[in-house]
Write a structure and sequence with these properties.
The protein is mostly beta strands. It has three domains: about 170 residues, no CATH class; about 110 residues, no CATH class; about 100 residues, no CATH class. The chain has a 15-stranded mixed beta sheet that branches. The longest helix has 17 residues. The chain is elongated and about 85 Å long.
Length: about 425
């Protein structure tokens, strides 16, 4: 318990400490909710905890959830499955002038949060990429990583407490794609392979795409203790150069949430006592009591918090052409390999011109190569020039002929394609 004592001594003089419990009693209500000034970015998740040792949750699907504004205006929330509730009005946004609290009616019990209000926020002035060598864990070898640094405006009236989440998008390219997929159809006579046909499907675009990744976890930052309220050239995110994400154009969207001091310390405490990375929706059972209370039964322990966050965002691109020679070398060294493997089999026009066993052996070899080739697919097939006119089938990895991700260019993607 030494860690617990240290943290409470540290926070006791500046914020109201959250209650910490290690309890084997299952069934605590877990509330994970927030509102923001961005439409579609407000939600609440409800679940029931398991025991302290057994991190299992039962999602709550039958609650009545409402956010009350200035004690009079009710904003009903509706269930979306998986314990998730969102505002009934999709364009709901929270405003700085109002005070909000969350109300939950569940199994005859009424739960309410403490009042929350939107804090003022620093503006994101700039984002910049920087190559940094650092040691990971206790590894004595330095690894080169691409870090993302943030600089904000200066505003003494704004919050000093921030959370960051990140969404990655990058251009991927299938170099051997012909915007078609070829499915082999093996023809059998009983258990004996007799011939091979091909089923070809054509697409408008499977050559390039934009995979997307929402980075798990949150990054907590503060300007507390600084002479002025500004975040200046602070690293908030990093990416290994040993990644195919940097082969063409890479983009990261930074979501900044200004929160209160209490919320900031809540999530910091959560990260201290949880094996998770402090992810926004990954509160561990039996740990921290937040600002949600049972109005019907004040003695009931409730886990979680409801808060207001002022959202802002900014996007930064990094193109392969902007990398140094050393960085390009690392990226290329770890790029997915694309090589052709060619199989041939006799192109039979006269059934009596070749014994069936020769054709069967060639087809079985092709079939087994597809089955055991760790993702090999047919890139193309054709009749070879020359005597005999054997059929050639080119095999390669799936990612070399078909891009995996959304094939529709995002509306905000304003970087030209490298092959346009």
């Amino acid at each position: 318990m030494r860690k617990l004592i240290v943290i409470f001594l540290l926070f006791a003089s500046c914020v109201n400490p959250y209650d910490f419990r290690q309890d084997d009693s299952p069934g605590y209500l877990v509330v994970e909710g927030y509102i923001s000034n961005k439409a579609g970015d407000s939600e609440t998740r409800l679940s029931r905890s398991g025991t302290f040792q057994n991190n299992i949750y039962d999602q709550v699907a039958n609650a009545e959830v409402v956010v009350i504004e200035n004690e009079t205006i009710e904003h009903p929330w509706v269930y979306h499955g998986d314990g998730l509730y969102k505002p009934e009005l999709e364009d709901f946004i929270a405003i700085k002038e109002s005070i909000y609290y969350l109300k939950i009616i569940l199994a005859g019990q009424v739960y309410e949060s403490e009042p929350v209000q939107m804090p003022n926020s620093l503006d994101i002035d700039s984002l910049s990429f920087e190559s940094v060598n650092f040691n990971q864990n206790v590894d004595p070898v330095e690894n080169l990583r691409l870090t993302l640094n943030i600089t904000t405006s200066i505003d003494e009236d704004a919050s000093r407490y921030y959370m960051y989440t990140f969404e990655e998008t990058w251009l991927a390219w299938a170099p051997y794609s012909q915007n078609k997929t070829i499915k082999p159809i093996f023809i059998y006579d009983g258990k004996t392979l007799k011939n091979l046909e091909f089923e070809t499907t054509y697409y408008e675009n499977i050559t390039y795409c934009w995979p997307n990744n929402k980075v798990s976890g949150i990054n907590m930052q503060t300007s507390e203790g600084l002479s002025r309220n500004q975040i200046l050239n602070l690293p908030i995110f990093s990416l290994s150069f040993e990644s195919a994400k940097l082969l063409h154009t890479y983009s990261v969207l930074v979501n900044q949430y200004a929160v209160s001091r209490e919320v900031h310390h809540f999530f910091n405490m959560l990260k201290e006592f949880s094996e998770s990375s402090g992810y926004l929706y990954d509160i561990q059972p039996g740990f921290i009591e937040g600002n949600i209370h049972n109005k019907s039964d004040p003695d009931e322990f409730v886990i979680g918090t409801f808060y207001a966050a002022t959202h802002s965002s900014s996007r930064k691109y990094k193109d392969y052409s902007d990398l140094s020679l050393e960085e390009k070398y690392i990226v290329l060294r770890y790029r997915p390999k694309c090589e052709y493997i060619q199989h041939t089999y006799p192109n039979i026009t006269d059934e009596n011109s070749l014994p069936d066993s020769d054709l069967t052996e060639a087809l079985e070899f092709l079939r087994d190569s597809l089955l055991t080739g760790k993702g090999l697919q047919i890139a193309d097939y054709y009749v070879m020039v020359g005597e005999g006119g054997d059929m050639a089938v080119d095999l390669t990895k799936a990612h070399c002929i078909r891009c995996s991700g959304t094939n529709e260019k995002p509306s905000w993607w304003d970087v030209p394609l490298p092959f346009e």
